[in-house]
UniProtKB/TrEMBL annotation:
It holds the Pfam family PK_Tyr_Ser-Thr. The chain crosses the membrane at residues 325-344. Its EC number is 2.7.11.1. It comes from the Eukaryota. This is non-specific serine/threonine protein kinase. It is found in: Cell membrane; Membrane. It is a single-pass type I membrane protein. It comes from Eucalyptus globulus. GO terms for biological process: defense response; response to other organism. Its main location: membrane. The keyword Glycoprotein applies. In the C-terminal section; belongs to the protein kinase superfamily. Ser/Thr protein kinase family. In the N-terminal section; belongs to the leguminous lectin family. Residues 1-22 form the signal peptide. Keywords: ATP-binding, Cell membrane, Glycoprotein, Kinase, Lectin, Membrane, Nucleotide-binding, Receptor, Serine/threonine-protein kinase, Signal, Transferase, Transmembrane, Transmembrane helix.
Amino acid sequence: MASSSFLFLLLLLVESSLVVDSAKKKFAGPVVNVTKHLSFPDFSLDNPRIVHDLRLLGSAKLSKEKSAVQIPDVSKAIDLRHLAGRALYSFPVRLLDPATGTPASFETTFDFQLNDSFVADSKNHTGSAGTESSHGGSGLTFIIVPDEFTVGRSGPWLGMLNDACDEEYKAVAVEFDTRCNPEFGDPNDNHVGINLGSIVSTRIINVSDIGVSLKDGSIHRARIRYDSPKRWIEIHLGSEGQEFFSAPAFSGFLDLSPYLKEYMFVGFSASTGNLTQIHNILSWNFTSTSQAFLRIPSEETCQSKIILGNTETPGGPRREPISNFLIFAAAVVLALAVLVSLYYNSKRRGDKPSTIILPENIQRPRPPNKPRSFTVNEVSCATHGFGEYEVLGSDYKGSFYRGKLPNGCQVAVKRFSTHFLNSNGSDGRRILKEICTIGRIRHPNLVPVRGWCHDKGELMVIYDFFPNGSLDKWLFGAGVLPWTRRFKVIKDAAEALNFLHSKKLAHKNMKTTSVLLDVTFRAALGDFGFVLSGSGSRKFESAVSQAADVFEFGVFALEVIAGRRRSDLEMEEEEEKDLLNFAWRLHERNEKVKVFDSRMGSLVNLEQAIRVLEIGLLCTLNESKGRPSMEEVIDLLATDRPIPELPLSRPVALFPYSSTTGLCAGYSCAPFQ
């Protein structure tokens, strides 16, 4: 008993020494400031750095006449209403120290000018016709956002946020609002607001009180200062070429840390609504300073040995840190105590031979993410006995369940129905073989297969769980997915299909319900078809399935562009009920723009969207009439190579297709009621 207590105390001594030593090492590094400085005296196209350092989204352009960033783009838009755009610095800026949760201090100064579009011409965006109260809107914002591809909604949303931006979408903005929206708490049509992750301002400043009119057509200068140690923000306003007002328009306590990530993008956004306005950013300076901890070299490094060697006195003793000495001494004493304990224990046992039992089967460790076979009991425990509250969706092949493995990984389990397994053409063993084949491949745009279950008459496949669910929920739900994300989803799905085809495989279930989204909205193909024909060669079957994948991808691209299902019997016009037929008819009339989802407003790159639509129609041609391979589709999506000419009308005898028989195949296609 005494020896056990002694060992326990020694272990505590060693552990405490290690903790103290690691703590010293952790905080030994000096604190340094990481500074980022941007300077744009103007936005002249003669400066090649402008195009490289500035990312323009939506209806934003560089105005050659004014050497300014301009939102909206008056050169391309026929109707300037309901447009939105962003202009961001192309590279992320460090704005938060994740170790301490400390936000960066920053200061930004910019000149801007807001002109009513009804008095603007292509050369000089100034004028004063009309009354100020009846024109203008919506306003300009300085924004800090987590990504460089999202464009917010037009109108009162000022291009800051859209319906797809959830609570996890961190955004900070200072708005210069020239429209009064009482539903957002606006006091008038001439105010500045501070927005923290919401379109509703946390702080509102009525700038009429300081004699400023944001939409008077003059050039205004703004300066925003944020002091991180004090959590203090100041907003100054002034005029071009003049000093700022002596007192800030607003100053007060503001903690930005809950709304920041370590790296974010800075820039501007603006929009128009029913009334229009030209927003010009003429110059911009930005400086940020964030804290970071540097690690000093370990005493075991060559650099420190050289330094110590140069600083030691000749013949003088070299001191070791006390903590290292304590660890060494404790380890020696512990080793001696263990040896003594073993000696006395062996004397007590006398000459009794000790028996060592070896395990019969030594199991090799399995890679953590390698697909494996599960038992029915394991899957049942993970899904709480296939409980009704874990059902994600169902189709004619079976049901999807949410589950959680013992290691904490969330999974989605597809449980094939007995009816499907007993139907003609279905072979459980062949399906299982295909599941195993798919499970061995990895690609960023394919949902990983965790394993399978073929036990007690059950056949199941276990996938990684994607928290944002399937694409159909975002396309056909209440929110509006912006065009930039739709285009990225189309490219992600094309990459996945091309990879499968390069491995002589096919997906066989290319629908919006089979495309899943992770937390970053990266798209991945899941819920493979696993449908094999009962006869015919594998080579022939693979070729047919890949051709069907290309056709289904074409219809999928049309669904993403149109924001509606391939078959919608509730459409008023008969010709609109079948999306593929409708798209071909509009192509015949040269009215392809009418296919686009009107909920996106004008935040669509028309040239890019029409190109994607034509690629989609190309995929639905007969194989002998020009249907491309997925490799060719990838090339068309990634380059400006001319698209092969489409026929003027939809060819007959297309690949057998009926949009009314397309069955649901994803998590959320048929939610459990």
